[in-house]
Write a structure and sequence with these properties.
Helix content: 10-25%
Shape: elongated
Distance between the termini: 49 Å
Radius of gyration: 21 Å
Number of helices: 5
Strand order of the largest sheet: 3-4-9-5-6-7-8
Amino acid sequence: MTLEQFYGNIATHVNNFSAIENGSRIIGKRLSKDIIDYHHINLKWLKNKEGTPFLSQVPDVHKRQKNTLVDQEPISRDVPFYNMQLADMVFEGPNAFQEVPEFYVNFRPFNDCTAYLPIYGDSMYPKFASGEIIAVKEVLNKNVIQWGEAYLVVANEQANNMVTVKLLYEHQDKSKLILRAVNPDFQGDTVVEKEAIVRLFIVKGKITRSQL
């Protein structure tokens, strides 16, 4: 089965689970439960090779509660954190990020995100300070944009392979976007063609790190 066939009805961003398939990421308890329930896997067989691999029918509510790894387990999507500068990251191939994550984060409000990334520089200050961590979610439809919100924009050579976090605004030419800094010291809008943007991520929030 492909990633889409196996995970598609269980979770979003199925490409993120390729790390599980190649052994570089440990599967979470909640995802394990979802897989077992959706594919009707016999937990006794999975743990002790007792009985048949799959249940003969969809378990009812009471049976489903017994056929779990952990009851009442909080939702865990294990969002990866990449500890490197945006300009040094590779955004090619089917997955949004090619680097190996430093660790994974389970924080419910951001568990639908694609990744956590550090942000450096002062162009977005005070909205984002250098050294803070942003939680980003990939936008698949570039025609649906929340104007005035911060986005991580990844462009091709047509826009000088730019990788930046900026506020997005509508341009009078529908084929273009306006990128704008928050810091008044970085004046002047950047206009890019929509077709030059190869990846787009909305910034859903941030984490501030304090050094004591």
